[in-house]
Amino acid sequence: MDNNISRRALAPLMAGAGLAATAACGPMGTQQPASRQFPSGFKWGAATSAFQIEGALDVDGRGPSIWDVFGGNPAHIADGSNASVATDSYRRYMDDVALLDGAGFGAYRFSISWSRMLPEGAGAVNQKGLDYYRRLVDALLAKNIEPYATLFHWDLPQALFEKGGWASRDTPKRLADYSALVAHQLGDRLKNFIILNEAAVHTVVGHLLGTQAPGLKDGKLLGPVTHHQNLGQGLAIQALRAARGGLTIGTTMALAPSRAAGSVWDIMNILPARAFDALWNGAYLDPLLRGNYPWAAQLIVGPFVKDGDVAITRQPIDFLGVNYYSPTYIKFDKTNPSYIGPGLPPKGVELDAFGREIDPSGLGEMLTRLRDDYGNPHVLVTENGCSDPLSMKASAVPNDKFRIDYLRRHLEVVKLAMEKGSPIGGYFVWTLVDNWEWDQGFTAKFGLCAMDRKTGVRTTKASYAWMKTLVKTMRLPHAEV
Ligand code: IFM
């Protein structure tokens, strides 16, 4: 791919890259599971990330991240907002814990802000930052909610970016050091770790399209940024295991089927769609689970892979986190050196507020591939959800039937996959409270709960009550007629 692909064109393609408001999520049939009863022990949770919820960016010694810099420029953000308050969760984390507890969730996926722990990305620890995560973890444990901490959810410390960011071979080592630090300091109570969040999105949207931090538009960065995140992940897994035993370690990927755009007659779209699959899915799955790169990804990462690297990227994991939103559509583009161009979903398909196609079968497709082609790893669905219609207004949709429908249909696919032999241990909704959705600012609202931005007060939506019943009964309701 080249940096002449516009963000608008790729918007329907990618999780993590949102754009035009079209409609909220709506109904569509899927193959039904034999039983709607989830097994006991199945984990239910909600997922968030530090930069999207914490606020308090310059409080208690936190250092800046690349998102402070990129998101601090109103021109980069749809509504010109910033994350200086977000959902104020640095101060209001007990409100979040109460909501998780109220829904009966047994797990919470949050991320640790690297630059709150290590303001320079390395070196001296910020004790107050550490204390915050200790308080959060303890508050969760007090309510029997299992903490799952993501170590890198896109908010690279600015100091490391200035030393080369993910283009540098040093950043993987810094990730490993930071991971070891978290394990040493918090691992007595925090047992579940997710190393990376959606590395493909960070690579492509942050370094090629430039519409998310660090805001670069340089196709030459695809190779090093992809490989160094994989390398850092491998080193971080090793570092966590060396730091202490008894940890449960995984990572989270934005998996998406890559489909040839157009009709069956558009056969020239097939090869670019396969190549995109290799860059989006294979370039992260294969080094971790197989110890190599798919052929098409080799072409871009090859020059950066040193002897011994793939032995590091391939690590045993306890679970693979699957984030799923929609399939991608790709077409042949002769103006692009890679011949990969963004295509559109078929006409008439349902789109969510982000212009992402709503297609739960795409989740089923990726779960089947994990089962058949990748050794059937233990899976947690670590993100899935949809936004209210995008709006500059503060108000959310309290009776969010479209979200209930969206969650139900994706959960039918999860259950079906389990019945076909996929070891899926849990499901985390994205997200708990409407938060700061990156370059879309506050215009997108993915929460089970709304928040009054003036008071910080949270109110539950209908989907929260629906999830609460599901968690209690473990039984997936049928569609309301
Ligand atoms: O908000 C994001 C999250 O940070 C990563 N996955 C997709 C979500 C919704 O766009």
Report on this structure.
By secondary structure, the chain is an alpha/beta fold. It has one domain (7-26, 36-473): Glycosidases (TIM Barrel, Alpha-Beta Barrel), CATH 3.20.20.80. Helices cover 37% and strands 13% of the residues. It is built from 16 helices and 13 strands. An eight-stranded parallel beta barrel has the order 1-2-3-4-5-7-10-11, surrounded by six helices. The longest helix is centred in the middle third of the chain and has 22 residues, at 222-243.
List the total number of helices.
16
Query: Class in CATH?
Result: Alpha Beta
Bound molecule types: 5-hydroxymethyl-3,4-dihydroxypiperidine
Task: Give start-end ranges of low-pLDDT stretches.
Answer: 1-28
Number of DSSP strand runs = 13
Strand residues, percent: 5-15%
Q: Care to give the gist of this entry?
A:
With 481 residues, the protein is an alpha/beta fold. The model is unreliable at 1-28 (pLDDT under 50).
Task: Give the SSE map.
Layout: H1 7-10, E1 43-47, H2 50-53, H3 66-71, H4 89-103, E2 107-111, H5 114-117, H6 127-142, E3 146-152, H7 158-161, H8 170-186, E4 192-197, H9 199-209, H10 222-243, E5 248-254, E6 258-260, H11 270-289, H12 295-301, H13 309-313, E7 319-323, E8 328-332, E9 340-342, H14 360-373, E10 379-383, H15 401-419, E11 424-430, E12 449-451, E13 458-460, H16 462-473
Parallel strand pairs: 1-2, 1-11, 2-3, 3-4, 4-5, 5-7, 6-8, 7-10, 10-11
Antiparallel strand pairs: 8-9, 12-13
Keywords:
single chain, 481 residues, alpha/beta, TIM Barrel, 8-stranded parallel barrel, 16 helices, 13 strands, globular, disordered N terminus, binds 5-hydroxymethyl-3,4-dihydroxypiperidine
